[in-house]
């Protein structure tokens, strides 16, 4: 079976996946001993460092280093196709960024496990993090699906959690964290890993949106002027008076901006234009 197409980022980095080989951008704090305060300190440091990063691969390195604090040497982020057809395609976010063992990656795609993976199936129906062990024990999981988890364990991924990441237009991604032991995850650890996954997903989606705009859209001076005055709360009539153009011309330029920013709302378009740095208030 051929590999699925990989867009934007492919991090098949498991050629030699030893814990000691992983970058240590956020030194492990051994939370089991450090107590409740250590969780917040390390998570706060993770947020602070990632906010200054504008590259998906570096964001993934920071996330992977943060996960080491919870004895998770393996992390995987992957976007999936929506369950149903949509009128608009999902944003082009990185499809695969992971550091799973290379041999398991090869086995997983060659056997077509990505199609029948019970973790993926369950995550599509969930909005919160789930333990792999719970999916394994679920009565709705069949033997073929359990075999995938058994094989993953034989490659060292003995326990894990996955975080569903649902987005607009039916887009769906999933972040997984895996351990080489069967000790499992405490609820507090799951909470922090889930928060880190949500933050990572938000950051890489934002970067992908910026990339899409830079690659496929250019904004004329008039478009920027119209959406700027929209962001300042002016109506089309008021903008026309300010710029010396007709209301129809104002609406024409605003609709072009809305189309380029993939929204049906002029207010949302104005917010996006500010957030993406297209205009400054």
TrEMBL record:
HTH luxR-type domain sequence ranges: 212-277
Keywords: DNA-binding, Transcription, Transcription regulation
TM ranges: none
SUPFAM superfamilies assigned to the protein according to its UniProt record, in alphabetical order: C-terminal effector domain of the bipartite response regulators (SSF46894), Pheromone-binding domain of LuxR-like quorum-sensing transcription factors (SSF75516)
Coiled coil: none
Record CDD domains: LuxR_C_like
Stated name of the protein: LuxR family quorum-sensing system transcriptional regulator CciR
């Amino acid at each position: 079976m051929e590999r699925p197409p990989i867009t934007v980022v492919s991090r098949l980095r498991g050629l030699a996946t030893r814990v000691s080989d992983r970058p240590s951008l956020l030194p492990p704090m051994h939370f089991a001993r450090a107590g409740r305060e250590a969780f917040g300190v390390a998570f706060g440091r993770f947020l602070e460092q990632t906010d200054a990063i504008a590259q998906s691969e570096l964001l993934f390195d920071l996330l992977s280093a943060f996960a080491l604090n919870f004895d998770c040497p393996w992390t995987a982020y992957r976007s999936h196709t929506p369950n149903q057809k949509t009128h608009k395609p999902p944003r082009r976010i990185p499809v695969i960024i992971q550091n799973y063992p290379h041999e398991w990656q090869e086995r997983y795609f060659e056997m077509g496990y990505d199609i029948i993976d019970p973790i993926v199936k369950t995550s599509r129906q969930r909005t919160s993090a789930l333990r792999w062990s719970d999916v394994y024990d679920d009565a709705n999981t069949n033997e073929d699906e359990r075999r995938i988890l058994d094989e993953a364990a034989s490659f060292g991924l003995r326990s894990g959690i996955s975080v569903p990441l649902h987005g607009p237009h039916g887009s769906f991604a999933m972040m997984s964290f895996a351990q080489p032991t069967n000790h499992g995850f405490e609820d507090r650890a799951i909470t922090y890993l889930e928060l880190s996954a949500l933050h990572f997903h938000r950051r890489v989606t934002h970067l992908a949106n910026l990339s899409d705009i830079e690659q496929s859209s250019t904004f004329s001076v008039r478009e920027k002027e119209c959406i700027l005055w929209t962001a300042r709360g002016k109506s089309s009539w008021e903008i026309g008076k300010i710029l010396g153009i007709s209301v129809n011309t104002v609406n024409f330029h605003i609709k072009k901006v809305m189309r380029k920013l993939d929204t049906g709302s002029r207010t949302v378009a104005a917010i996006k234009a500010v957030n993406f740095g297209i205009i400054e208030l």
